[in-house]
Amino acid sequence: MGDIFSPSEHCRECARLWQEFADATNAQLRILGQQQIAFVQQDSAALAGLNQAVAEAAARREMASDAFKAHAATHGDAKFKERAAE
């Protein structure tokens, strides 16, 4: 795992799906940060709303990851498949 993984070297669809995964991951991290702030501030109203957002963001990230992995599996490059499965 020493190499930097760059799906854009392989195909446009890889790059698009990887970007979707990155965007979903960033969105999830932002929401988790908001949730932490609400927890520290003991803002129960904000926490109640953020719990659902956290679950939705996690689901979006998981779907993006699955889509990327499914596409990566269509490539014949064994090293690429191995990296995508990580």
The fraction of residues in strands falls at: under 5%
Q: For the record, give the distance between the C-alpha atoms at the N and C termini, rounded to a whole number.
A: 9 Å
Q: From the alpha-carbon coordinates, what is the Rg to the nearest angstrom?
A: 16 Å
Supply the number of structural domains: 1
Largest sheet features: none
How many E-type strands?
Answer: 0
Q: How would the global form be characterised?
A: elongated
Percent helix, as a range, is over 70%
Low-confidence stretches: none
- Structural class determined from secondary elements: mainly alpha
Order of helices and strands: HHH
Mean pLDDT: 83
Number of helices: 3
Structure summarized in a few sentences:
The protein is mainly alpha-helical and 86 residues long. The protein has three helices and no strands.
Describe this structure as you would to a colleague.
- This protein is an all-alpha fold and 86 residues long.
- It has one domain.
- It is built from three helices and no strands.
- α1 packs antiparallel against α2.
- The chain is elongated and about 50 Å long.
